[in-house]
Design brief:
The chain contains 23 helices and 22 strands. By secondary structure, it is of the alpha+beta class. The strands form four sheets. Strands 1, 2, 3, 4, 5, 6, 7, 10, 11 and 15 form a ten-stranded mixed β-sheet that branches. Strands 12-13-14-16-17 form a five-stranded antiparallel β-sheet, with no helix packed on it. Strands 18-20-21-22-19 form a five-stranded mixed β-sheet. The C terminus is likely disordered.
Amino acid sequence: MQLRKNQTLERFHEFLKLENEIGNITRQEAVSMVPPLILDVHSNHFVLDMCAAPGSKTFQLLEIIHQSCKAGSLPDGMVMANDLDVQRCNLLIHQTKRMCTANLIVTNHEAQHFPGCRLNNGTMDSAQHISQLLFDRVLCDVPCSGDGTLRKAPDLWRKWNTGMGHGLHSLQVLIAMRGVSLLKIGGRMVYSTCSMNPIENEAVVAEILRRCGGSVELVDVSHELLQLVRRPGLKRWKVLDRRVWLGTYKDVPKSRRSVVHPSMFPSGRSFQNLFDSNHNVDMQNDINNGHNGDSEDGVQAMENLMTNEFAEEVSDFPLERCMRIVPHDQNTGAFFIAVLRKVSPMPPIQEKPKKGIAKKHVKPANLDIEDNEVLQVDSLENTRKDVLEAVSVADVNEIEPNIVDLRVRPSVSHEVWNSGEEAQEPDDAESIAKMTQGKRKLQIQGKWRGVDPVIFFKDEVIINSIKAFYGIDEQFPFKGHLISRNSDPNHVKRIYYVSKSVKDVLELNFSVGQQLKIASIGLKMFERQSSREGNSAPCSFRISSEGLPVVLPYITKQILHASPVDFKRLLQNKAVRFADFVDAKFSEKAANLMLGCCVVVLGKGNNKADLESCQVDESTIAIGCWKGRASLTVMVTATDCQELLERLLIRLDTEHGSSALVDRQSNVEDEGEYLKGKTNHVTNGSS
């Protein structure tokens, strides 16, 4: 409140919000930037962000794959950002829209059941480049209890309890295992949480290594990001349940074994494993039948078989290669990060003997749960079954796991997630197939409820009119790169552009019956002009300001190069009559353009050669305008005009020295402090 009373800081805060909205600045917790950095992403990589919302890490990944690209070119890689919750997906789309990228797909799936999109070789199209959706890099920033954010989210002090970590453990294992199954051989996956609870961290990593049977290794990244203060992962810990510390699974009362699983302990040994290792099957049967002497649940009989080596378990895996970032080391939030590399195919799935295991309903949970109302995903037995289904590649085309209604819904908080009510599953594959037949039919038709269809735009008449009107060079790849979200070609309002990598994924998705539920895809490139004057223009589609940077190097018509004085006048007045421009040559050229959308590029000097230069690079500033019968009108938002004017004045300062600073306040209306070191990108505002 004291800071808000300070008018200077208030204006600075408004400046930060403006720059964030435009896309020049992204505000993010420092430690949450580490997972994308440690993921080792290259521009040609296919990257999956499994639990992506609200989108800061996705934005970071997109910046990494784009950073080595020249103006007008697109990277060979792509990012697929997924989130379970539709509202969080919308937030994710809003955040990433500032990036203006054609290399992003936003999907809406349960991460633990993310579709594999495997194409049968027999039905594979000869033109198909990929037959299965696999990724070079996977970011697995899973839902967690969020206790690492306690400093910035103090409300968690009242809500946190041990049941939160226990209930999320199984879900975290499911998501991570699905991530590993979608990883290419040699690919890297980062598992991360904003929690310090070993049940959500080292225990999950150990269980992944245990189930993958040597096909995945834990990578030592201590030589990366050397200035980052981190601590090694834990190799030993105990489990706290109902205020009792448990050293090993044998200490868990029978009534709590549906809540506390063997995988939560360092060794991962279960009740069954310990008996088998001692070859004492008869005693096991006695205990299972309740014949266990004085002990209610067989714990005493169990202790008689065990030696002291299990009193405090130590993990056999090199968990010290994980990293823990704690708040008091360098004044940050807390974070846990583990880097995994897939070195060989995952081991074949062992068929489990069929037996009637009763499924249990899971009670709905809320944020204020008590320890006896643990956030529970499923029992141990069912969790293992779900993992096997989730990581199965061979049966992807048979019964997709993502169809089964096993929802785990996020809470209001972004850090703390809850489980929702779980639907009862059928006991056999035939029943599942019958239950999902209707949904599968909808999938094949691509009719995801509440989601606009994704359709390749192939209207040659419209495409040719756009190419002819703007003189778009033949080198610009049009065929197969245009997308619409409207099934009626006569009422398409927006045309989106996708990169080759996204195009290949989209073609695969169509081939497998549209298993991906796509919330957003591609870059808005062209928009239908709906004004009365627009209907009389030769081309009814204008270039969107988001797509302008990509297509600008290929435009040969409807393009003007303005002097800084005339460009500044356009931004200040929004609409300028031809006769009012300072440069008579520019005025004449503008008047001679065809009616409709045009592009005005800021010239890099005042002489004729500089103004006519068509060279496009990272510093190019260009805007879309409407050429009317007597004037030019800017087609970008007031916010973008303000930002562009600021950039123009900074450029003039650089070229002409401090004399241009005299009338800064009159040119930029109460903008406040300005940033000298802002990066000059091609304009990327939304219109």
